[in-house]
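We emphasize that the prediction below concerns an isolated chain of 161 residues; any contacts that depend on oligomerization or on bound cofactors are therefore not represented. The input was used exactly as deposited, without trimming of termini.
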Amino acid sequence: MRPRGWRWGAAALVTAAVLGLASCSSNVRRVSEPAVSIQQLTVRADGSWALELRLQNYSSIPMQFQTVALDVSVGGEAAGHLQQAVNYSIGPETADVVTVAMQPGSTAKMIVADVLAGGRALPYELKGTVTATPEDKRSRQFEVSGRSTLNPAPGLSGVLR
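Result of the prediction step, given as a token string:
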């Protein structure tokens, strides 16, 4: 026959082990590749675009994003190359949005105008690099790519989200 308190002792030991492992894992400093996506595309009166880029920091430490250099395609056609200094600090495992201007090619302008007029979804693709600096480290260049779709924003003329 076992003593009465053995279950409580075993439970306390398991709890202490789990808490000890949990406290160790919170100190891991991991640098992961970031991601970039378009959160919103706004067609301006002069035909240029305002792109709200969502910069996602998957690292466990803050990252200082310096530049984005992206080839942008919409509806399967090249829209142009975007190269922009962003100088934005993003905390660990979070995201933030930065607005950049882009002068798209004429084919891309027509595709977006057609999508907006028809109220349809716009597939897009981003390929390129993001330059970012992990906290107290040297600058690194990360390859990024992604595909998604944007839809007309109800009540907002010339806006895709």
